[in-house]
Structure formats: structure tokens, C-alpha cells
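hiii, so i know i said id send this last week but things got crazy w the move. better late than never?? heres the sequnce for the chain we talked about at the cafe, plus the structure i predicted for it. fair warning i was half asleep when i ran it
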Amino acid sequence: MPRALNNAGDEAAPVCGQCKKSGRYCARLRKSSRFLAYSYQPGTGNLSKEAAEKKKFPPPENPRDALQSPDVAWYFLNYIAEPAKWYDLGDASRLFATRVPELALDEPLLFSAIIALSAEHVSQTTKSKPAKAVAEFYHGQCVHRLILLDEKIELLRNGVALAAVCLLRSYEILNEDIDPNRHLQGAYSLASCEDSIAASPPGSLLAAGFWNYLREDITFSLFESCPLKMDVTMASAPSLTGNQDQLHSITLILGQVINKAFSYQVSEPDWERLLSMVKTWLKNVPSNIKPFSRSQRVAVSAVGELPHFWFLQDFHASARQYALLALNILTAFAPLNQLPMLPEICDGSDKIIGDVKKEDLLEAFALEICGIAFTANIPSVLVNSFGPIAYCGKFIRSEATRQEVIRRLSACKRSVGWPVERLISSLKDSWAAEFESPSFSGEADTGSGS
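okay and structure toks below
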């Protein structure tokens, strides 16, 4: 990644003195002067010639020409190497790392979204001011093109528009100054259509966009303790012909749990039906998707160290997290006489032995969810874990474990650029307050804020 110049740098080209002395590759951003473009004026879609003379960003109208700029080409490559992994979770074809960049070579909308997200990712992980300016310019270009989309345009049918909006969603989470829910709302009309999952081939970009949209929707709902924008009860379940379908199926189940619980409409029959769905998923999940190794379980809250779980694939870890999270939410809303129905799967067993308090179960599920995230410690799993941690982390009671979670979350900023400070602040607020466990009737507030 490009390094931000510090006071020791002499800005020499093509290699600065600092890198030449240390023998390192000098990847600092060069000031391109080959292209002249207009800059985006927020709210108008117009471009300022005066700002263009200053910034000299290559316009996205012809992406192949824009990529002749070394800086823009580097951001394009950075997207493939880093943020694309977030979207290819559970996708064996890796469409967001392969098909999306390929289409972007000739599609200004998608190209603008890629450069905006990649530059914002670089800005957040390196504190690069040039990267921030690039991100803002291409974000404006992308938004302008989204506004001009016609309902009948091919970009809506082939998944390009939905993919672009999914990328913008992450851009705006990283940016923090923009409402992170704005494009999630805008994507609803693109993702909730029947073609998104029922009529589209499983390996299509539209289907990949749908699953990404749904996971982003789940993340936002977990931060805000609000229902999804989509009614997933009508979505067709995957055929479960491939391992990645296990993640998709538990995602749909979790979506139904969230919609019922956060709408405070969990009747006892609903609760039993949803629990049965989760238990059936756990029973039928292939053995290769389960952790191939785990640390010995210790007494809950006895020490600060989180448990460890190792999986063959990143989406195996995320699928188990979603199953645990569904159980965590159902536990929070469980009537006390139904607690024995919950499976205690943290130690590998399939049933609860003896009397177990609700708060012990809530914490046990939370510890495993956090342990899975930080054992994997890779961007695709971490990014998908922030929502689950935001909801379940408040149930952790051990001060030593809380500090460990904060330490591990803080380290994520350097690798993925997510605004983890907000998540940490929310968890601290929850821990500082006297937490009242939500009742089955839904009278208590389960919100963690964001």
C-alpha cells in the first residue's frame, strides 16, 4: 500500500530518499498530470473546471483511458487484492474480484464505485489525504450515474447497478461522514426483486449482489437492532448443492430471526419454529464446514482469553457465526421455561445438561462468535463479524475479556479500515449501563446503538 509521506521524506522521484536508503519499494502516490477532469460538486452532478485544474483526476467516462494513470491503476489493483475479498465470502467464483473488475473496464458506473471504495480503503488504512480526495471524486461520479439510471436499463438487470451500490455501501461505512444506510435503502429496490435470487442463475452477478446486499442489511440491523428492509420469508432457499450454499441458507434463517425479534413479534410458536430451523441447519451441516480444531473450553468469563476455532474456509467461519447469532437472539427472547430447548453447541454437545442461566448462554454464544472472528483474523470474516459482535458483545461480562475484544477490534482498523471506534464506543456504553436482559414479550430494549 502507498505510504503517506512524513517529515523525513524528501518527495524525490521516482524513489524518495527515505525508501532508497532503506531499500524498500517506494509505493507513495505520485501526482498524475496526464489527465484533466472536472470535479464533482455535491448535489448538482456538475463538474468544476477550476477544481479540475487543481486535482487532475482522470474522468471515468472511458475507464481504460483512466487506468493509464498509475495512481488510478494502483487503486484498481488494490480493490482486487483487498476490498473484493469482503464480497466474495461464500462465492467460489469470486465474482467481485474477477467479473466485477472485468465489467468495470468498460462500465463507468462500476469503475467509479471500485475506485471510490478502494481509495477510501487506502485513506482509512494509511491516512493518505491524496487517497481521500480521489475517493470523494469518484464517489461523486458514481452517485451521479446512479441517479441517471433508467428503470429499463440493462445495468439493472445484469447486476452491475446492484454491485455498484454494494460497493458504495462499504465506501460510506468507511467514510463515516455519510449516512451508511442511504445506499442500503436505495439498493432495496434492486435487491428485493424476485429475479435477485429466484430467477437468476446461482453463479450470476445479480445473485452475488443479492447475498452481499442481504449481509450488509443484516449488519446494519444488528447495529441498530431494527428489522431488515427485506422480507426474507418469501426468498427461495438455496438448493444446498455446494458448500457455499450453507452460508446462504443460514443467512436467510438469521434474516427471519432478526425480522421477528426486532419487530417484537416473536410469539411462542414463532420462537419454536425459528429455533427448529437453526437446530436443523446445525444437524445437517456437513462435517467439513465445522471447525477442524478448537481450543479447550474454559469456564465462562473466567479469563480474558477468547476461545479459538479453526475452519477450512472463511465462509465456514461466517456460517457458524450466523448460526450462533441466531441462537443468541433467540436466547435473548426466550421464555425461561423454554431455555432447555436451546442447544449448547459451544462445547460440541447438542443439548443443555443441568440448569443454565440465560445470561450464561448469551455470554457463551458471544464468546464463540468473537473467538471465531479473531481466530480467523482475515478481512472477509472480520468485516462480516462486526455486526454480530455489535449485537452479542454486550453480553460479555468478564472485564478481562471485554478488554481483549476492544484490543482485537482496534487492530482491525489497520487492516480493513472500518470505523471500529464507533463499535467500541457502543460496546463500552452497553457495558457501562446496567444491562437488562430482553424479555420474551419484547418489552425490553435490545438495541446497542451505533
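btw The chain has a mean pLDDT of 78. thought thatd interest u
miss u guys!!
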